[in-house]
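Please, structure for the following, as tokens.
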Amino acid sequence: MKALTFNEHGGIEKLHIAEMPKPTIGADDVLINVKASALNRLDLFVREGLPGLKLPMPHIPGSDGAGVIAQVGANVRALRVGQRVTINPGLSCGACEFCLAGEQSLCGDFKILGEHCAGTAAEFVRVPATNVLPIPDDFPFEQAAAAPLVFLTAWRALVSRAKVRAGEDVLILGAGGGASTAAIQIAKKAGARVFVTSSSDAKLQKAKELGADVLINYATQEWDKQVYKLTNKRGVDVVFESVGAAVWLKAIRALRRGGRLVTIGATTGPNPQEEIRQIFWKQVDILGSTMSNQREFAEVMNLVLRGELKPVIDTVLPLERAQDAHARLASGEQFGKIVLAM
């Protein structure tokens, strides 16, 4: 099968299209003929190399994907060959205390497609049948591929962890990323007033079209002070962030007393500057969130498939232009998801 691969960690030039063996499946798996694979910033991190991550080479990246079932394992009863599906990229053992409690993303053996094992940027991918969700016949593969990782991540962070409620103020740092475009819609659906930041006025206007209420250009304004001013010196109820070290101090300052900071990533580094006195004096909650459990995945994807939440697609490129796709994502120029079409 044709696949996007790299043989060693490094820059974009390490990516190549190669012939790879078609995966063999187990009794509880399905084999999916991939029609679309969406990029996430995780793809850049995996290609460049993550501390402690040791992968057999060549490696196939890609966490998000959608396609058609080509084969089902002997124990699979609820799915059939020819069915159109999308994928939950979070893999768990199914037997530990967390999996048995329905909290798969807390599993001690939790893995993500494309990060810890071969991913979706290939003609075929093997996935546990429990991680597959059928999609309607008229739902585009590109949208089905663009939704899962960012929507399930934003849903768990805002709904399950931060418990956003109607009437609250939610600040989303960085308007253009896939998780941010999902978070804007989810926060609005919960009834919140949504603040967004970006250094691009064009991205801020696109965020407004998604439902953002308050737009702050951090290239021309000190965004934490602007938030404080616009909330009448109260601060926001929730900050949703994946930026990491560069923003934590300001994010804590932007929170109201008793507010919640929910973090899903560390793009600018894992060791932030913070003010402990701000944390205990304001009694803020700092919440971590990773991916989702199966119930949350089903909840948010059903909203996506009904059209109540919509994946934002920046660009669709053929697999052969994967280097261009990685370059665009690395530049930060995109608004929404970049999708590779098979």
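The two ends are 11 Å apart (CA to CA). The chain has eleven helices and 17 strands.
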